[in-house]
Amino acid sequence: xxxxxFSPATKRIIAARAGHRCSFPECxxxxxxPGVAPDDVVTIGVAAHIFSASPNGPRGQGGLxxxxxxxxxxxxxxxxxxxRLVDASDGAAFPAEALHRYKREHExxxxxxxxxxxxxxxxxxxxxxxxxxxxxxxFSLAKLTLVLGNNGSGxxxxxSTLSSYxxxxxxxxxxPPARSGHIMEVEFFTSERHYDFAFSxxxxxxxxxxxxRRRQGRKVFALYCSSISHASCAxxxxxxxxxxxxxxxxxxxxxxxxxxxxxxxxxxxxxxxxEHGQLRGACLSSSPSSGQAGRLKIEIAAAFAExxxxxxxxxxxxxxxxxxxxxxxISLLSDPRRRSQTVITDTAPPAGWNRAQDYTVLSLEPQRxxxxxx
Length: 374
Known about the structure:
Layout: H1 8-17, E1 32-34, E2 41-43, E3 46-49, H2 66-69, E4 75-78, H3 80-87, H4 96-115, E5 124-128, E6 137-140, E7 144-148, H5 155-163, H6 168-174, E8 182-189, E9 194-203, E10 209-216, E11 221-226, H7 240-247, H8 251-264, E12 272-273, E13 279-280, H9 290-309, E14 314-319, H10 327-333, E15 341-346, E16 359-363
Parallel strand pairs: 7-15, 7-16, 11-14, 14-15
Antiparallel strand pairs: 1-2, 3-4, 5-6, 5-8, 8-9, 9-10, 12-13
Helix pairs in contact: 5-6, 7-8, 8-9
C-alpha cells in the first residue's frame, strides 16, 4: 500500500482544531505567525499521523482503512521538535493510545479558550485504595470508556470505586471495611483542574461501619446505574414509576427525561406515556424484552447524566448491561458533543462498537478481587 498523506484541507482542519498550537503536553507553542511581508504567514506546524501513513511506519496502521488513515481523526498537530520525537524509534515510546489522549486533552483546552466554557471534560483519573488490582494507577477517560475484563476481574468494584466520589457508602458495600481501616482516594483531572476526594472506612468495636470524609475537592457527580437492581421493572410493561425507582428520582423527573429523550434518540423518538404511566411506542413492545428494557434504561440514564453535566463534570457508570447495547446507544454515549462522559463494563466489545466515536478501552487484569476481612 502506498503512503497515505493528509490532503491540504485535512491538514488545515487538524491545525485549526489544535488552535495552531503544538498538542504535546506542556508544550503548546504557536506554530503560525506573521512572515516578512505584510501579507505573508509563516507556519512551522506538522500534521502528524497517529497511525502511520505507511504500512511499516511508526505505530503501524492498526487495521485502519486508507480512508481512516487519511482522515483528520488520525492526525495530531505538533511543532517540528515533537513531531520528530513521537516518531523516533518507530514510535515505541508514544503508542497510538497516548497520541489520541494528547489530541483529546489539547483540543479540550482549545475549546475552553475559544468558547469561554468551563473545561469540564475529565481527561484522566487516578485511583488509590485497598484490594483493587489497579490501585495507584492512572487511566485516560474519553466520552465513552469501555472497561473490559472477565467475570471476577473487578469491573463492578472499579465502578463502585469511581461512584464513591459521590457516595462513599457504595464502596464498602462492595468491599467491606477492615477494623484497621481503609483509605480510598479518587482523583479526576481535566486539562486545567484537579478534582480530589478521599475518605476512610472502618469497623467500630460494635461492628457498625464508620465513614469519614478526609478530603473533598471540587465536585464531580458519579452516577452509578446497574441493570441488576432491586428497583427492577416488573410486570408486562415499563412504567414511569419503575424508572423513577431505578434512578432514585421523582416521577416528574422521568417525565422530563422522556421528553428530552424524544428530541435526541434515534431509537425511542416515538415514546409516549399512557394515562396509567406506562411507556408505549413502536420501539417498545407491550412485553419488552430484556434488550429493549436495557436500551431504554441506558438512554434514560444518559439523558439524566446530561442534565446534571450542565452544572458539574458528570460521569455515568453503567454496569451489567452486557448484550443490551445497540449501535444507536454506542453512538449516543460516544458523541463528542455530549457534556457528560460514560464508563461501561463488558467482557468483550459490545454490539455496535464500530459506531463508537470518542472512546478509549481499559482492560483489567484477569485476577479475582478479594473481599475485606473484619
